[in-house]
């Protein structure tokens, strides 16, 4: 059996889960290389705000030795949820979506990723190294094939490369399927100064209004930025049917305002006056449960393993996956024992979480035939 000591470990993807895995391995003196297709840490925006839960994401950050650093950057006040009446914009006397715990402060995804990146030795992450395939060599070792035709060999390949993972096909035939829900993202910068009325509606954390299979969610991020999401159920080809092109901002704006016809004007202002254009974000998911037969020398974590609706669990689970896998590699004497122990944990855990996320999405946007 191949020993975990001095194993060549390759993490594919420098997202939160892959970086958490690399950081915990590094803390225990293990060598690891992270291959990332993007050319630099700031090649693209990293997305919105995340609530990091005490029982999952914070467990991983504690294992990484970064919990204090996280606490210094996080926004505990942004845990607040406000539910608004779509017809009047009045705050409703009902709680927001059920909290996973009482200690889940918010942090911008980019800040959290930087915290993890800065904790790794220089050179751990190899930027601009897009993996296009992984191929078995024999005896549980693998060859990573990169976009430029070059290759690297590894004793363990960890697929942390997200929804459209290039590693997943080596262990599973599953592919993401459209959930029937699309989010349209837009937003505001310096909202407290430039749009104080909208900022007041959002409050300190997240605002949600829902009606008739449509939802408007506004989420406070750091530095006065507010991200806005309009969610609705529609076929995957809804843009073509509606004659909407995201190259034409005003056409999208008009379509979304029409989608929210009858809503209070102050809520429509989140769409009418948004500053950052519009981006379509169709929601894709993996089957539930998504499991795979163990394949020597390779495994998955995060969205590559259990892509689920974006309702607050994905990033937390990805970091916990990474931490758990790293701990298994430190605790067990062989790579196979470590990966089997990890997979035995992650399969049932992710199945439960995926069902919870699907239920949460249905609560916000009930199926149209319900």
TrEMBL record:
Annotated FAD binding sites: 51, 109, 303
Positions bound to NADPH: 44
Cofactor(s) listed: FAD
GO molecular function, one term: monooxygenase activity
Protein name, as recorded: Flavin-dependent monooxygenase
Catalytic activity: a tetracycline + NADPH + O2 + H(+) = an 11a-hydroxytetracycline + NADP(+) + H2O
A Pfam family: FAD_binding_3
Record note on quaternary structure: Monomer.
Gene Ontology biological process: response to antibiotic
UniProt-listed InterPro entries: FAD-bd, FAD/NAD-bd_sf, TetX_monooxygenase
Family affiliation: Belongs to the aromatic-ring hydroxylase family. TetX subfamily.
UniProt keyword terms in alphabetical order: Cytoplasm, FAD, Flavoprotein, Monooxygenase, NADP, Nucleotide-binding, Oxidoreductase
SUPFAM superfamilies found in the cross-reference section: FAD/NAD(P)-binding domain
């Amino acid at each position: 059996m191949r020993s975990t000591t001095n194993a060549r470990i390759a993490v594919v993807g420098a997202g939160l889960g892959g970086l958490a895995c690399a950081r915990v391995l590094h803390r225990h003196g293990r060598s690891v290389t992270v291959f990332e297709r993007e050319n630099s840490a700031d090649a693209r925006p990293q997305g919105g705000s995340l609530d990091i839960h005490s029982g999952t994401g914070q467990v991983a950050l504690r294992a990484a030795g970064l919990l204090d650093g996280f606490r210094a950057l996080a926004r505990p006040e942004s845990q607040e949820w406000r539910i608004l009446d779509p017809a009047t914009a009045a705050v409703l006397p009902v709680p927001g979506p059920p909290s996973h715990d009482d200690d889940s402060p918010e942090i911008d995804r980019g800040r959290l990723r930087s915290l993890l990146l800065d904790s790794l030795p220089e050179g751990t992450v190899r930027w601009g190294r897009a993996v296009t395939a992984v191929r078995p060599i024999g005896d549980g070792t693998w060859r990573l094939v990169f976009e430029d035709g070059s290759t690297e060999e590894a004793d363990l390949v960890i697929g942390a490369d997200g929804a459209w993972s290039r590693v997943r096909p080596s262990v599973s035939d599953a592919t993401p399927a459209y959930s029937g829900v699309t989010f349209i993202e837009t937003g505001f910068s310096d909202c407290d100064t430039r749009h104080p009325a909208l900022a007041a509606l959002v409050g300190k954390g997240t605002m949600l209004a829902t009606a008739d299979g449509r939802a408007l969610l506004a989420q406070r991020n750091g530095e006065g930025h507010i991200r806005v999401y309009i969610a609705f159920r529609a076929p995957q080809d809804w843009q073509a049917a509606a004659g909407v092109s995201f190259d034409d901002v005003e056409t999208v704006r008009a379509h979304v305002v029409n989608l929210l016809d009858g809503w209070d004007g102050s809520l429509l202002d989140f769409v009418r006056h948004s500053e950052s254009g519009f981006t379509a974000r169709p929601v894709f998911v993996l089957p539930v449960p998504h499991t795979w037969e163990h394949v020597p020398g390779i495994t998955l974590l995060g969205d590559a393993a259990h892509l689920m609706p974006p309702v607050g669990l994905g990033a937390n689970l990805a970091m916990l996956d990474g931490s758990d896998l790293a701990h298994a590699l430190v605790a067990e004497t062989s790579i196979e024992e470590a990966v089997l122990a990890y997979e035995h944990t992650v399969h049932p855990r992710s199945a439960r979480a995926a069902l919870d996320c699907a239920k949460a999405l249905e609560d916000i946007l009930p199926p149209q035939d319900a």
